[in-house]
Amino acid sequence: MKKVLSSTLLIIMFSLALNAQYKTAIICGKLITAEDNRVYTNMVIVIDAERIVQIGTKDIIKSNYKIIDLTEYTVLPGLIDAHVHPLIYGDDYQVNHVKGSSAFNALRGLKVVQNWLNEGWTSIRVAGDADTQYAHFEIRDAINAGLFDGPRIYGAGHYLSVTGGGGDINFIAPEQSVIADGLVVDGKDEIQKAIRNEIKFGSDWIKLLITGAFMSEGDNPQNVQFSDEEIIAAIAEAKRRGVPVMAHAHATEGINKAIKFGARSIEHGTFLNDESIDLFLEYDAFLIPTLSVGEYGLETWKNSKAQAKMYELTRKHRQASSKMYEKAIKRGVKVGVGSDNVGFPPNFAGKEFEYLTQIGMMPLQAILAGTKVNAELLMMDKEIGSIKVGKLADIIATKKNPLDDITELTRVEFVMKGGKIIKAIK
User: Fold this and answer.
1) Entry pTM
2) In this prediction, what percent of the chain has a pLDDT beyond 90?
3) CA distance 323 to 325
């Protein structure tokens, strides 16, 4: 009996020791929690399994904790990109999805999102994607099952478009048949059926192309493409299932209607006006301006045939749009970080922070846009978006303080997702 009791006691003590050793203490040089406007110094974050369990000074460290020494770094919450397309690539993106199978798209997309995680993006929202099936949800499910490392993935299966709209292929001869990059639907019945299928196959957001697009061929971003009846039906159908709607909208009329009818976020919002800003504030909607893709297009696609429309429209309207974005920021519209990243060059998405500061945000405000604000947009603010006891341990670090140089967020040197180190300090 004594031997049994001794063995049991040893097992209990060993188990307790293992649990204690599982805790990790991150020693921070500077700490931006995104819970307030302060920058803390010489603080410690204690992590147990996947969650933050304690934040305090160095005296909270126990002798058996694993130590991660970031005293020479600034520590921040993991970044959240609210507008990405991991399966799209290239300037002629509208046909690339039919060049490879959905399985190939999933493999390629997995590599893309892993690169983004390595850059500090611990969560992403897919704004619909170009695949004949749902490859990005296969990626998400594989990550959630622990088969691969990758960011937390939320979002829409496809972007819903009218016939001849921004998600349709408008340069194919009428006798040819090809699956469009978007999901083409017309009328209330088709929209309701499509939304039910989107949710069935994993969408936790619905994406509507309310207006034409900048990057697609054969449509006009200043046109509203869905009718009022169709928009209302789509948002009502999504709402019945508890799924929010993100509305791609460039045209003023499309922005304003989408907000009034209940869209949670407006993507791009290029031609917003003062009424739009009033509506954002009245309906508590979010604006995702996606500045990076326009800047990239101006730098890269001057001679691209596929993106000639995008280049000219961006060049023509960029300055006026920036002034309205700045006005929206000053008036308190909830503006989040969304890069429109489609597998662009490394650290592309991090430039969104710099562009937001160029249109009126203070550096801390830009950081909040890519952390706390986007977590609220995703309705995941109890889990992610800031460094707080009880939240998931999604944590990054930069060598210099991004409040002094916001471009530091393109040079993230440490990444932890859910308590697991993804990228260690070299």
Assistant:
1) 0.94
2) 83
3) 5
